[in-house]
Specification:
The chain has about 160 residues and is of the alpha+beta class. Helices cover about 30% and strands about 25% of the residues.
């Protein structure tokens, strides 16, 4: 199902594949929409996602999608994965100074060498394939950590 904005405003010249839009629904509230018909309530109220949460969700969503194929080769097609993003904006600078990402994977039964390979594969896949991070990182530090891996050191950015 393809969706386009209603006719309250003309389509901008740049409207095309990948365009998204948000319509104001009230004081500091919007509904974000995609051309695939997805709607996301944006704001700070109940049932709404705030812009900082959207940023963090975009980062971990991209990390998960970027690493999925490579991780499935090592962990199986139906592996479980949960990604987290932590960070709050700095009120003085009115920006995020850092966002910490963590991923939980089924590491039980893997050797230390296999775990190290999974960590490396995850980091490389995200560094190479995550368009969102590649766009954001020059402005803020984004770190990754595979929870349960032997080392607690953040994965180096490639």
């Amino acid at each position: 199902m393809t969706s386009v904005p209603d006719e309250r405003f003309p389509l901008p010249e740049g409207f095309g594949p990948g365009s998204v839009w948000a319509d104001r629904t009230g004081h500091r509230t919007l509904v974000g929409r995609t051309q695939r018909g997805v709607e996301i309530p944006i704001g700070h109220g109940e049932g709404e996602v705030n812009p900082g949460e959207l940023l963090k969700l975009a980062l971990i969503g991209c990390a998960g999608m970027s690493s999925d194929v490579n991780l499935s080769r090592r962990l199986g097609d139906d592996f479980a994965m949960r990604l987290w993003a932590h960070g709050t904006s700095d009120e003085a600078d009115n920006r995020y100074l850092s966002i910490a990402e963590e991923v939980q994977l089924p590491l039980e039964g893997l050797t230390e060498k296999e775990i190290a390979t999974v960590v490396k594969v995850f980091g490389r896949a995200v560094a190479a394939g995550c368009t969102v991070e590649r766009s954001v990182v020059p402005g803020i530090e984004v770190t990754h950590r595979v929870l349960g891996a032997e080392t607690d050191a953040p994965e180096e950015q490639a």
